[in-house]
Structures are given as structure tokens and as C-alpha cells.
Amino acid sequence: MKRFPDNFLWGGAVAANQVEGAWQQDGKGLSTSDVQPQGIFGPIVQRTAGDSALKDIAIDFYHRYPQDIALFAEMGFSCLRVSIAWSRIFPQGDETQPNEAGLAYYDRLFDELARHHIQPMVTLSHYEMPLGLVQNYGGWGNRQLINFFLRYARTVFQRYQHKVKLWLTFNEINMSLHAPFTGVGLPGDSSKAAIYQAIHHQLVASALAVKACHEIIPDARIGNMLLGGLMYPLTCKPEDVFETLQQNRSWQFFGDVQCRGAWPGYMLRQLHEQGIELDITDEDRAALRETVDFISFSYYMSGCVTTDEALNQQARGNVLSMVPNPHLPSSEWGWQIDPIGLRTLLNMLWDRYQKPLFIVENGLGAKDCPQADGTIEDDYRISYLNDHLLQVAEALKDGVEIMGYTSWGPIDLISASKAEISKRYGFIYVDRHDDGAGSLTRSRKKSFFWYQRVIATQGDSLKP
């Protein structure tokens, strides 16, 4: 018996603002990502003539995609997750007519993937939106954005209905709680009430996009995308266990709304106790009843929860301020490595929703150092991915329905958090550096050939 089913989709995942570059080409408007040149946790800046940022060129995927797709095909990819830059299609966000040059670019991209028999999975909004919608409407805090997003979604569904059969609405939609400008176009110091209202508008927009996709492309499947923030209780104290339940619910509720079709009672209670009463109309409630076909998520690490305030204070400033797990090793960036957590999360989501799952991000960021002959021995990446994929195979044996696996950053790209390329994820090395130097030449790492064999053997080459 093979470790993975024959119809399992193998591939990688990228985001437009982290790979494309060409930030002002072919009529593209400014996006929220363009004014965050130091990443999603960096300052918002006003771009001026002649300035530059690493993301402006990124890895120049906008022009080099045929070469990169050929390398993905060489590895055996059957799926590539990409995103459409919303501001390439509607540069300000509120136009009545789309930008044809932007639409034509993605036609070429999808045609190139088809030539290599690679199925695209397309995220509609991956950590960016037209800056005009923030400046002129106040971002997702404004209910008008629901219709602007729906116009964009319907436009690309109509245009690519014969080329794209797998869609996602918003990337890591729960990240808005930690990075509100990136997620919903609100200032970082916005009130919780404002952020949750903006999130509600986004959830309604997501549901309406799901409905539109079902109408326009009946043979397509459209999912949501969660940041899989699995948390464990630090101790077996009942207070820690209950606080962990609440912490997990703080991101699971996004899945509850998108998979079950309504805001869950526990979340409405939490908001009410904080003095937050959302504006939810009857039309909103009707819209939310249209639910996603599958659940996709990212998984990089797990964390711990405790009611011990002294330990919580020590954790402030960690990634998402999580208390570290004393039983786990960490990466160079302090992200704890927990392969079994992926199996746990897969089972948890399957038990909760009984909808197919898709792992659309998982990978290891590291500082890769080419040898004198140019080779890159990234055994640490191979070990990380091997151990996580073994746990995916275990979850399949548990009876979890899993559609596929797209590793994050199959080619080196600009990181989201700090907009640096030195934190590399790829199977393919890109000769570019944090200071902007480099030839942009592509080369295969050791992990390239490892992943190629994993795909060719349907996982049988994985080492226990």
C-alpha cells in the first residue's frame, strides 16, 4: 500500500507579492504590500519616486515564470499554489472595468502551468489588497469593500473558469488579529471592535465569493485558508487546559464561520464580554450560510498556553507571543519544530468539520550556504519535510481526507514577516541577497532531488 493516494496533489506554494516583482508594470496599482517594504511587521511607508525595496523585483517571477515552472515540473509537481495580485486586476480597487494587461498576465501564467500538466490553486487575496481601498474607503472596516471584492472575484472566476478549478479566498484569514493592516487594511493600533467588524465584512465577502464560484464554475472547488496555530496546554492544570481551548478557538472560529455558516456562540459571548457588539445584518447571516468545499491551512509550528502570567510575560516578543514547548527543538528563527503537531492538527480539523483538508504551506526557513562548487547541502530542510510528511501519511491512515500538500516556498522568495531573502525556504536557490545584490540565477539544492523522489515514489522514499 502506497503512503499517499494516486490522486494526492504534490507541489509548492508562493504569493504574488513575495515572488513576482514588477510592482508598477502593466498598469498594476499600489498594494498594501508595496507600502510595507520591511514586511508585515514593519512600518507603513509612503513610496516616493526612485526609492526601492527588495519586493519590487523580488525573484522576478513575473518575467521568469516559464523557467521556474519548468523546474517545478522537473520535480514532478501536479499543483502550484499562486495568488493573483488584486491590484493588477483593479489597480485602485473600485474601478468598474478590470485592467486587461493584468488579466492577460495570469492567462499566460495558467497556460504555462497547463503545458506542464500542473494544476493551479489560486488565492484571491494573499496578504495584499489595493492601497486605494485603504486610503479612500478605510479598508475592510468599510462594508463597501464586500462588493469591491466580489466584483474582483467574479471577474477572475469568469476569466479563468476553464483554467483554474481550485480556489482559496483569503490567505491565513486569522492573521488579521496579529497584523491588521496586512489582513484588513486597518492601522495597527485599531480597536478590537474595529478589527472584528472588519473581519466580519471579510468573512461575508469570502462567503459571497464561494457562492459566485459555485455559480460560475460548477466543477471548481473553493476553500478557505487558515494559519494553523495549534496550541497545547503547558501543564495539565484545568485552567491551562481551558485557556488552551479558548486560544485554539481564537483562530478556529474563522473555520467555524466558513465551514458551518454562522458565528459560533462561544465567540459572540467572548466579544460581548469585551463590550463588542458586531453589526451583523440578516443579509450577512444569509450570505454566511454558503460554506467552503474544503479547508486549507498553513502549519509551521505549535505553541503552549499557560495561565502563569510570569511565563506569559517572558514569551512577549516571541513569534505570536507563544510560550515555548520545553520538549521541542527550534529553527534558526526560533520556530519550534513539531511534526506530530501536524498529524494532531489534521485530525483535529477533520474531526471538527468533516471536510477535505489541504496542507497549502509547510516548510523550513534557513540560511543556506552554497559550497565552493555551488551545491547546497540542505539536509536540515530534508529532515524537517521528511518528518512532517511521515505524519501526513499517518493522518491518512487515521482516515483523514487530505487533498494534497504544497510546501511553502518551493523556490527562494522574499519572506512575509521581515521582507528578507536570507530566510530561505526553497528547493531552488535564487542568487539574490538582502542588500539586493545577486544575479537572480536559479540552481537546484539537494532537497530538489529529494522532493523529486518523494513525489515519484508517492512518499515511499520517506525515511521513518
Automatic annotation (TrEMBL):
<feature type="active site" description="Nucleophile">
    <location>
        <position position="361"/>
    </location>
</feature>
<dbReference type="InterPro" id="IPR018120">
    <property type="entry name" value="Glyco_hydro_1_AS"/>
</dbReference>
<dbReference type="Pfam" id="PF00232">
    <property type="entry name" value="Glyco_hydro_1"/>
</dbReference>
<keyword id="KW-0326">Glycosidase</keyword>
<dbReference type="InterPro" id="IPR001360">
    <property type="entry name" value="Glyco_hydro_1"/>
</dbReference>
<dbReference type="GO" id="GO:0008706">
    <property type="term" value="F:6-phospho-beta-glucosidase activity"/>
</dbReference>
<keyword id="KW-0378">Hydrolase</keyword>
<dbReference type="InterPro" id="IPR017853">
    <property type="entry name" value="GH"/>
</dbReference>
<protein>
    <submittedName>
        <fullName>6-phospho-beta-glucosidase</fullName>
        <ecNumber>3.2.1.86</ecNumber>
    </submittedName>
</protein>
<comment type="similarity">
    <text>Belongs to the glycosyl hydrolase 1 family.</text>
</comment>
<dbReference type="InterPro" id="IPR033132">
    <property type="entry name" value="GH_1_N_CS"/>
</dbReference>
